[in-house]
Input
Amino acid sequence: MNARAKSPHRCYDFGGCPVKPLRPAATDAGREGWGGEAGGARRPFFPRSWRGRPGRPRGGGYLRPYGRIVMLRDRHRFRRLAWGALAYTLLVILWGGYVRASGSGAGCGAHWPLCNGEVVPRSATAETLIELTHRVTSGLALPLVLVLLAWAFRAFPKGSPVRKGAAFVVAFMVLEAAVGAGLVLFEQVAYNASIGRAYWMASHLVNTFLLLGALTLTAHAARGGAMPRLRGSGRRGPLVGGALLGLLVLGASGAVTALGDTLALGGGLDPAEEPVVATLVGLRLYHPLLACLVVGLFAWAVYHVRRADPGGPAAFLGLVTLALMLVQLAVGLVNVQLRAPIPLQLVHLLVTDLIWIGAVLFAAEALGAGQYTRRPLRASTA
Output
């Protein structure tokens, strides 16, 4: 027998050992066996309905190795589902940006969840099809995150950050649906030029960022990644936290600025006749200045992290995110020069979301102290 087979202590979790390492019980003959009883007889740890499934066996026995391997496979699949849910949410967000930029938000009238009072509208215009498609894709996102939550509670132990992250994902997804419903029911869509709509758009963007952040941290924690903690982080905590807060404010101002472009350029509303439109268009000057300030703050945070750990994952993620920010500045400049065409607005929105995801991962690595370390499977020498 090799060293692994002789070892009385085993861990079958490639993502670390969040529970006590498994060990075999000794028989009366001095042999090691998985669940051996007196006389060398072996009894199964699981009832017949439990065999091959992760969980706690009846009678206080130890988990069989194949039970841990099944749980490990569940976690591998969960990680794929979490990253897939994040990618799908990005697609839904991009289509929602197209709904706003094309002025199709009133395609289903002031009805929600129905479209023009019908489940499937019979006479549908282009605006109706665009809005209905957004509602269908958004509606599919909710059961997707509910499956994510149920799977997190199945595959990860109590107190795991993955469970908490999945719960936050569901909460933000429900809040996202509520904000979208409020936009429709209060008619804050299409070319409605009211100051209240600016607040709606800013809150919508902030909740979207929080949803993306929760999805990112859930997927990151599922692969054994660290979770951000301010306690014990020293000076890097306020720096990284301030950079994230600056990105939230910058994103909200970008949503309001994009609304001004939609009303003035897409809707043809004259700023001289609409004071709200004039105010929104005037914010074009302050948004790039705020962007430069936030980029500088984020660069300072990356520099501080790189000094402490030059070759670590936090430094790498910070540099990648900083490069995306520089690309975003160039995209924003071209967007202004070309008078905000819809395809370029969607590119601008996509890069914004990628920057936020990168910043969240950077914060997780820079401020994290992982509860579950990623260690290879190996046997102890005891």
The chain has two domains: 1-50, 68-102+134-367.
